[in-house]
Design a protein that fits this description.
Blueprint: H1 3-25, H2 30-34, H3 44-63, H4 92-110, H5 115-118, E1 121-126, E2 129-134, H6 135-159, H7 169-175
Helix pairs in contact: 1-4, 1-6, 3-4, 3-6
């Protein structure tokens, strides 16, 4: 299996898992989603905002089109990045819509990338330092980061008595129906 094949599978998994998680979290009221539960980003809503923010920052770097992946408010004005913990969208419907759009962008991007590009380097700024790292490493980090924080959300849901179901990558492969 190539890096491209693996990242395409992980992009499908990311989309599949986010769809499941957002459907479950969408059943909670706003106060429950935003309650400080002692997590790193405090709440379920805070953690989901962080994931969207991080994915957009990485996609801007990967594509070289940071403008496309800049979050915007309801009027279309760019939301200036201030911190990894900032709330991009207070409204869950807005957050959910933007998550779905970003997931579609991730899937589209991994379907146009090739092995040669993945074997190249990515140069980006991180906390004021310019770094150059292998692109395959940065993309792998992005998918790992998504899984890490979704795991935090599923833990919070479990602590609330809500069963998030099986979240393993293999579960997606079992559930997927072969294309006709």
């Amino acid at each position: 299996m190539s890096w491209v094949d693996q990242y395409r599978a992980l992009a499908r998994y990311n989309l599949w898992m986010n769809d499941k998680l957002y459907a479950l979290v969408g059943k909670l009221d706003d106060a429950e989603r935003k309650r400080d539960r002692g997590a790193f980003f405090r709440s379920i809503h805070g953690t989901l905002n962080h994931l969207l923010l991080a994915d957009r920052r990485w996609m801007g770097r990967f594509t070289g089109d940071e403008e496309r992946f800049t979050s915007r408010d309801a009027s279309g004005k760019a939301i200036e990045f201030t911190a990894l913990s900032q709330e991009l969208y207070a409204d869950f419907d807005d957050l959910s819509r933007e998550r779905a759009r970003t997931d579609a962008d991730i899937v589209a991007w991994v379907h146009q990338i090739d092995e040669q590009a993945l074997s190249g380097d990515l140069t980006f700024a991180l906390r004021g330092t310019v770094l150059t790292k292998p692109l395959w490493w940065a993309v792998g980090h992005c998918f790992n980061h998504q899984t890490h924080h979704r795991g935090q959300v599923t833990t919070l849901l479990t602590q609330m008595g809500i069963d998030p179901g099986v979240t393993d990558l293999f579960a997606m492969l079992v559930e997927e129906k072969p294309a006709p």
